[in-house]
Design a protein that fits this description.
The chain is an alpha/beta fold. Helices cover 36% and strands 26% of the residues. The protein has 8 helices and 10 strands. The strands form 2 sheets. A 6-stranded mixed sheet has the order 6-7-8-3-9-10, with helices on both faces. The chain has a 4-stranded antiparallel sheet with strand order 2-1-4-5, with helices on one face. Helix 2 crosses helix 3 and helix 2 runs parallel beside helix 4. 37% of the residues are buried. Bound molecules: adenosine-5'-diphosphate and magnesium ion. The site of magnesium ion has 2 residues, from helix 1. Keywords: ATP-binding, Nucleotide-binding, Transport.
Amino acid sequence: MGAIRLEKVKKSFGTLDVIPGVDLDINDGEFVVFVGPSGCGKSTLLRLIAGLEDVTDGKILIDGTDVANEAPAKRGLSMVFQSYALYPHMTVYNNIAFGLKMAGESKDVIDQKVQSAAKILNLTDYLERRPGALSGGQRQRVAIGRAIVRNPAAFLFDEPLSNLDAALRVNMRLEITGLHQELKTTMIYVTHDQVEAMTMADKIVVLQAGRVEQVGKPMDLYNNPANKFVAGFIGSPK
Ligand code: ADP
Ligand code: MG
């Protein structure tokens, strides 16, 4: 399960109202992209869902339960960052296994989960390498592997491809949407890249200054943008 609902979610940093109030419904299994210009609050909204920031007000419901005051680990979500955040001194295997070890899983369970994730991500031949001996795309796959083994209710991606070159980005886009088709797990994907949003999303959430400007399928936004901002941002001719 992985239905996520935001009700009047607000976030201020001191006197700065970064998220004045967001209502949003994400269905179980949906691939949702948060898109908007730099500084509009995409990462903050994702971090609120993940529990890496506390809400100033409002509810975050995961499968009907308000988790707004729960610790990140209790929310059953896995976050994949732009900067990979891998441990350089550990092998790929141990990077992927790390969270499972911390959770006290048995060696056999860990091995089965790591091998299965490695197979999905084409990392089987790289398990004994360290991150320094991997390409950017492989490192990003290790970061995704670490998320997969925890079997989350939803994956949260914060601009995971922005450190990769253009050609690799196209490949990784296909890999991530392929992963979504295979796992059918809810994914929330943050980007400032309109092309990523249009090509990857089941549902796009367009943000500006911490507000939701429009929610809809890529072609619905393109054909019927709610306002000039959405039209301009999505590249719609209207
Ligand atoms: P985006 O991911 O869309 O680029 P962010 O969510 O990172 O935007 O930031 C939204 C706004 O909130 C920006 O004005 C940013 O400076 C501000 N902000 C983010 N995190 C903090 C923080 N910890 N303290 C103060 N301001 C912050
Ligand atoms: Mg950001």
